[in-house]
Structure formats: structure tokens, C-alpha cells
Design goal:
By secondary structure, the protein is α+β, with helices and mostly antiparallel strands. It is built from 9 helices and 11 strands.
Length: 284
């Protein structure tokens, strides 16, 4: 072996190998979304109090996470982005309650016109907590009632249960915890009309025994006072050929976590989620 080869062999043996860190795709996507959100004018929690829309019309859409930056880029002149303590990406933790026999779940699955969700919600970034009852009326409106609570709960007190029962026109019901969800939310508030758009992603649904991650999807919800109200976000969905899609984190989560649940009504949504997951795998 000549002297040149000997010297290079010595150098190779003493070099520290370069290790390329594989970046987490979820973290990369969050960074891309954050970059786009910096283009939006901002709105604070206090300012958003004027656009609570607790009695409203909801439209939901399910889309691949890869499309969210394209959607946001076209909306920077139409909406303001909520920021909480300097954050545009806000984190939510929710615990859903139901009866032992899943009465509220089955009201939804059986397509009852008046149906309810009961949950405690933790707004992680603002460190605020609420007990909420969400009603879908027979006229297609969503009405949300809520009371503040002092801390996150895992069980209802008798006083909490009494309040929930006062919001639901049925015989007194006993509620138990059924499903946790964690997710990240973007909240956009209309500049020219009373409208809110929420974009939820990084969704995890779980109980004490099982968990399911849904990192490939975004659940968008458009909240307006009237059905015929103009919405730039809805127009963007039409341009992208993305149609309204029923989606309930509670019913989808229960169907994924608990065995033997009736699923007929939500099968189209479950199929769409599966299709998005399959397509996402092609990009990995």
C-alpha cells in the first residue's frame, strides 16, 4: 500500500462518523404551519369574545394535513389568527362523558335530530377550564352552554352532574368518563363578517386502555350565524373540491377505541380517514 493510501486510511479510521438526525414529520409540519400563520393579522382572546357564536351553524371538512398550508396561504387577507400567550398553535385537552350504555353516542349514531355532547375542556395555553354541553338541534343549529371550573376533572361532582342534566331535557342521567382527546387548534376569525374557522390536527383519542393517533388529517369547522353567509374558507373548499363532511371527535374516537360499537352512520367518515392515511403513506 502506497503512502497516500496509508495516510487516507488513517484519516478515515479516526474521523467521527456524521449522524444525520431524522426530523419528526409532525414537528416539521407544525413548523411549516407556524410560518404561514405569521402572515395573518392577530386577534386576542379578549377581542374574540365579540365573536363567540355559541348559537350557530356549523359546517365541517376533513382534509389531508399536507394541504393545510395551501389553504392558509390563500386566506391571509380574510381572517385574523388567534394568539394566546404568544402562541398561534393552541393546545386542547378534552374529556367526554356519557352514560354507562353510551346514550349520547347512540343518539348521534341513530341520527336523532336533537343530540348532545358532554365534555370538560382544558384550554392548555390559557390554563382555563370549562364544563360544556353541546346540543345539535332539530333545525341544524349548534348551541353550546358552558360553565367555568377551577381545574381539569376526571369525574363529575354531583353539582356538575345536576348542571348538565339541567341542559338536557331527559330524565336525570348519570355520567361517566368515556374518552380523552388531545389536539392542536388554529382559530381564525373573519375580518369582514362574524365567522370563526377552527382547524384541528395532531388529534389523539384515548382511554385508559387504548389510544389512536390521527396525525394525517385536519378537521376544519366553519362557524357562522347563518347558512347562506359568505365564507372565504368555504369558497376555498369548493375550489379544492373538498365537500362538507360530518365529523365528531367523540363518535369517531369511541368507534376507534371501543369494540362492538354501532358505526353505520359514520362509515363514510371512517372510510375517508382511512383513504387519507393510505395516501399519506405514499409521501413518507
Amino acid at each position: 500500500m502506497n503512502s497516500f493510501l496509508r495516510e487516507n486510511l488513517k484519516l478515515t479510521q479516526t474521523m467521527t462518523p456524521i449522524v444525520y438526525e431524522k426530523k419528526d414529520p409532525k414537528r416539521l409540519m407544525d413548523e411549516e404551519i407556524q410560518t404561514v400563520l405569521e402572515k395573518f393579522p392577530l386577534i386576542s382572546l379578549n377581542e374574540m369574545e365579540n365573536v363567540q357564536l355559541l348559537d350557530r351553524i356549523d359546517r365541517k371538512y376533513v382534509l389531508p394535513i399536507q394541504k393545510i398550508t395551501d389553504v392558509l396561504n390563500d386566506l391571509t387577507e380574510d381572517y385574523r389568527a388567534l394568539f394566546v400567550r404568544g402562541r398561534r398553535l393552541n393546545h386542547y385537552r378534552t374529556l367526554y362523558f356519557d352514560t354507562e350504555d353510551f346514550l349520547l353516542y347512540n343518539l348521534h349514531i341513530n341520527d336523532r335530530k336533537n343530540r348532545y355532547k358532554v365534555r370538560s375542556r382544558e384550554y392548555v395555553d390559557s390554563q382555563s377550564y370549562f364544563l360544556e354541553v353541546k346540543e345539535k338541534t332539530n333545525k341544524g343549529r349548534t348551541v353550546k352552554s358552558r360553565i367555568p371550573i377551577d381545574f381539569p376533572i376526571s369525574q363529575m361532582t354531583s353539582e356538575m352532574e345536576n348542571w348538565v342534566n339541567s341542559q338536557i331535557p331527559m330524565e336525570d342521567l348519570h355520567f361517566e368518563p368515556k374518552l380523552w382527546t388531545n389536539f392542536t387548534r388554529i382559530t381564525l376569525v373573519g375580518i369582514n363578517a362574524p365567522e370563526r374557522v377552527t382547524l384541528d390536527f395532531n388529534l389523539t383519542v384515548f382511554n385508559d386502555f387504548r389510544a389512536e393517533q390521527m396525525n394525517d388529517i385536519v378537521i376544519a369547522e366553519v362557524k357562522t350565524e347563518k347558512t347562506d353567509q359568505h365564507s372565504p374558507f368555504v369558497e376555498k373548499m369548493k375550489m379544492m373540491h373538498i365537500h362538507p363532511q360530518e365529523f365528531s371527535k367523540y363518535t369517531i374516537g369511541v368507534s376507534e377505541i371501543y369494540d362492538g360499537m354501532k358505526k353505520n352512520k359514520i362509515k363514510p367518515t371512517l372510510l375517508k380517514i382511512s383513504k387519507i392515511k393510505r395516501e399519506a403513506q405514499l409521501y413518507e
